[in-house]
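G.,

No rush on this.
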Amino acid sequence: MAKKLVKYFVVDAFTESAFKGNPAAVCLLEYEKDEKWLQAVAAEFNISETCYLTPITTDVTSNPRFRLRWFTPVAEVKLCGHATLAASHTLFSNGLVNSDIIEFDTLSGILTAKKVPESVSNGEAKESFLIELDFPIVPMSEFSVDALSISKALNSTPIIDLKKTTTSGDLFVVFPSGKDVTELNPQFDEILKCPGRGVIVSGVAPPESGFDFYSRFFCPKLGINEDPVCGSAHCALAPYWSKKLGKCDFMAYQASPRSGILDIHLDEQNQRVLLRGKAVTVMEGSILV
């Protein structure tokens, strides 16, 4: 009997343009595979995230539900925004679900994705759509550490605030301006020596930019020097900037070389972050082994 091939798609998330945003490989499984295989395939793709979708049959909900797991080239992670957006885009765009809402069973609990039609412009309906992800807030705590070692890893850029996420242990570093975020040339060898998993840097956006804040995310410990657009980091960024800017709705810009745009709503009462974005499929194929 011939071996069943595994269909995959590579999707650029949080962008309208191919080769921008953050790429993720989306693999469609009929049944669970062993972790050694999952990690080996992620290492083979060697992009920031490879995710795996397995259909779940359940009476709990009328919405389609999938098991969703995310792997970097070296490890499984508990939460990933851009690969969830990529997975949702794959399911919606290829007619693999007959619903505008998808539920994902993940290491961070049940997450939902909603297909949101774009506003009509000039009386003409657009075929494209946004995807809204419903994610949990990532809490942060104060972090006492020698800021000099952190600053050294970040080209001695002045640090005006320093915290740590409580879920993944990422350092959360605030610069005086978004311009500092854009111009940063990180020292990855020094970032590897920093405490925690990765480093989120952020600063308030220039007034003329049309954005509220800029950010970047560095995670060489997980094989990703710079994550082009990190949805999960914005689950910490949104509540932080909500307190600083006094608002709950944001346009955020991730200032990586590939760049990305996120439309964000903070639901403080329910401790949720709604991330809206677009995605583009750039390739598809089959895994033969």
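When you get to it, here's the other one too:
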Amino acid sequence: MPNTFFRRNRAHFPKRSLWFIFLLLIIVSVSFLGVYLIIHNQNSKNILSRAELATLWNSGNIEKTLTESRKATESFPFDEYYLSIKGISSYYWALNAQDEESRQQLFEESVVSLRKALAVGVPAKMRAQIYYVLAKAYYQKGDPWFDMAERYFLLAKDNGSKEQDIPQYLAIVYAGKKDYARAADWFELALKNDASDPLLLSAAITYNNINQKEKSRDLLLRLEASASDAKIRLKAKLLLAQDSFDAGDISAALQGYQEVLKEDPLNVDAWYGLGLVYSKKNDQLGARAAFRKVVQIDPNHADARRRLAEKL
């Protein structure tokens, strides 16, 4: 009999306790949900709608757009539109940053936001633009990220992007990866839309690396004659001198290096090239003087030090 009594108590007591705990959990959950919804609704009142954020972006106020999109993603962390605008505005605001650390932080914010937007799912009509800005953000992060830049530039193009600078970016990306054959193909397309001095110089270097000497020389001569940037014009002149030396035209190489040094007396590459020219002409005194000048300007120049250690 006592055992029966205790068995009955054990059977009924847990049921009452479980119901009580269950009801308590429901009450607590509803309370927390109510508090969350009140706070969320209060915060949401300060969030711009998609249309308002688009209007702000179209006004050209990048900083304000970034600020507002950050607020929006705090309340709506999986909204693909807010994430997209945050990623795009952080990229363009990075271009205005004064220090490199801030630039890289903003580029990283752009990458994370845009990747998250793609993961959540963006409408097909937005993908090309998202891929394009994401590719540029990776490009700005530097050489270690060129594989990702390549991937997203190609995706942007495949998804219908009409941005005319994609061939230019891809050409530079492939050149950076030392895939000069593919770089040359993209330079061919890029130069149809943009014949800027930096692009012409990059194309000339790429053509030279795949032994398309004539194409390279034509571009370098064009830059030497008409480049608006003095540094690019000087670089073209230096490369032409090196090309003349490689081709065995020692007189043209000598003249080219001397012209570079008239404009830039501390140009290490020109002094080193001059030393090679004098060595080729069996002018040992002239060669050693040129190599000593190289070491004077750049004490860590290993090739010049090696030349000085040799018997000319």
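The two ends are 117 Å apart (CA to CA). Residues 216 and 307 are 29 Å apart (CA to CA).

Enjoy the weekend,
O.
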